[in-house]
Amino acid sequence: MGPMSAATPSAERRVSARVGAISESATLAVDAKAKALKAAGRPVIGFGAGEPDFPTPDYIVDAAVEACRNPKFHRYTPAGGLPELKAAIAAKTLRDSGYEVDPAQVLVTNGGKQAIYEAFAAILDPGDEVIVPAPYWTTYPESIRLAGGVPVDVVADETTGYRVSVEQLEAARTERTKVLLFVSPSNPTGAVYSREDTEAVGRWAAEHGLWVLTDEIYEHLVYGDAVFTSLPVAVPELRDRCIVVNGVAKTYAMTGWRVGWAIGPKDVIKAAANLQSHATSNVANVSQAAAIAAVSGDLSAVAEMRSAFDRRRTTIVRMLNEIDGVVCPEPEGAFYAYPSVKALLGKEIRGSRPESSVELAALILDEVEVAVVPGEAFGTPGYLRLSYALGDEDLVEGVSRIQKLLAEARD
User: Fold this and answer.
1) What percent of the residues of the chain are helix, what percent strand, and what percent coil, each to the nearest 5?
2) What CATH topology corresponds to 10-55+301-406?
3) What is the mean pLDDT of the chain?
4) Exposed site from 117, 195, 234, 323, fewest CB < 10 Å?
5) What are the helix and strand counts (H, E) for the chain?
6) Which of 114, 126, 243 is nearest to 180 (CA)?
């Protein structure tokens, strides 16, 4: 349904303009389509969802089972999170990032997405601009718009390893700029900013009195010589204008448990908690109990996953770069490859000429039954995102199918 004309009476508009303007999560849509085809018996291989293929570790599941039997978890608990989980998150943040925070600065949310939306809702007024480095995760601009803000894209490409410069950020800054979104390691590109670059970005934001929302969900998934740097640790003067978003989903293979958090100044966290008290109340207590076990435990589970992801990362980058017309920088973090396919657009492949990465992704799914997410979902047409958080055999088989198909490309 296209946008309704201004003359259309509001009584005829069945869905509000605010919500009607939101598009479905492209990554979840691709994943759902792949799973539906698989359920119908098709040999589909899905590179769509950003989700570890490992089960949640047993000790975390055991903590949840125990919580199920505890009547105190059968009741409402504080909307902003169990006090013992907030304390455990503060301790984990000091341990892993070197960032010392008070439990009163922590808000426990239903996954990272709720943390992101509530953080933006707590600090944005209508028309405030948020600088969003692109390629960006598909949910960020939608959260900003829902909160009344205006996302302003700053695009980086494969020539810089998908990292934006301070000069680009400064060129995008206006008198309406209120927030910088900073994500390292990045979804969808796997880019990781060095400590020096992180400091430079943070100092620029501090100098101009900007807020920063930094998403640290992939903090433990870095490879080779790359090192994760927490922005408010690198630039301490930003602490009073910085909100850190994180969660257990990627580190502990807990995507379905829905536990994330926001850490920030107490007044902003209190405001976001007030919003949550009306939106969802507390996160499910069983999930919170599981999260306590996760953040209080050691990092051996993520170490095991990281070595598997590192192996798959090497394989997928090599295989993608073997395809004529594909350029894939080596991701340094997270579990995504983000190849450019611009040189293949407009070429003939099995009787059709895909003119966009959306059309190319559809052709790949139709012809070789491999699901990938087109770059349009991340603000940069001409690319594909492939998650390598899937089994080694499926990964090799899936990319082999893409190799064979794209080898047929002709002018």
Assistant:
1) 45, 15, 40
2) Aspartate Aminotransferase, domain 1 (3.90.1150)
3) 95
4) 195
5) 14, 12
6) 243
